[in-house]
Amino acid sequence: MQGSPGWATMRGMKGDHGHSKEEIAHRLAGSNGTGRLRDAVYGGIDGAVTTFAIAAGVEGAGFSSAVIIALGIANVLADGFSMAAANYLGTKADLDDRRRLYKVEKRHIRQYPEGEREELRQIFQDLGLSGDVLEGAVRSVAAKPEKWISLMLTSEYGLAPSEPNPVAAAITTFAAFMAAGIVPLLPFMLGLPDPFMTAAAATAAVFFGIGASKSIWSLSPWWKSGLETLLIGSCAAAVAYLAGSLFRV
């Protein structure tokens, strides 16, 4: 039928999902979890950038492959752990703040129930409810304190629906950093011919792959997202190489 999207077009639409009762219930239940995409991209890009930057800087300075391997491994372990620890502490701070606000809202509901109901009423009004439907929604949610507090946390404070997981965030960041960060070192560790150029090509592939994978969760075409990440990583590597060349032995 003219004007209807074809099969290929519908397959290409990002974020498409089913709308049966079972599919909706399953999808909403899964939305309570916290995704690890940001942590993986964060760790992977930084791992590839910093490790290759070390290789580029040392190569630019004219030192041996042994120096590149030693400094690269030290960076993968130390910087990877540092990033994981920083992400853990940052996510833990978000979790602590969320739990503090939870206690605040719980106390306010107990001490100022009418004021909190008015907040709830105005939230539903902003969503377009009015009259008996509005009052019924307020009564229904107010009868379930945990749902009430959860709604206030998301609507009043702008928090995510679920609690962040500091341990999972740290592990994901560290694993992604290690996986991407070891790639620039492999040509040197394996004794491949022209290891620096091989490392540059492999690292470029990692940059492009990470960027392309991000497109699954964004509106950008995979090639555009990949090239964007490749450009950013290449600029960092070029700066490191030029800085190292200033101290060339």
Helices and strands in order:
Layout: H1 7-12, H2 21-30, H3 37-61, H4 65-111, H5 113-126, H6 131-142, H7 145-156, H8 166-181, H9 186-189, H10 195-214, H11 222-245
Membrane topology: Multi-pass membrane protein
Protein name: Membrane protein
GO molecular function: manganese ion transmembrane transporter activity
Please characterize this protein's 3D structure:
The protein is mainly alpha-helical and 249 residues long. The chain contains eleven helices and no strands. The protein has one domain (37-245). Helices cover 76% and strands 0% of the residues. The longest helix is centred in the middle third of the chain and has 47 residues, at 65-111. The radius of gyration is 25 Å and the shape is elongated. Mean pLDDT is 85; it is low at 1-13.
Short description, anyone?
This protein is an all-alpha fold and 249 residues long. The chain is built from eleven helices and no strands.
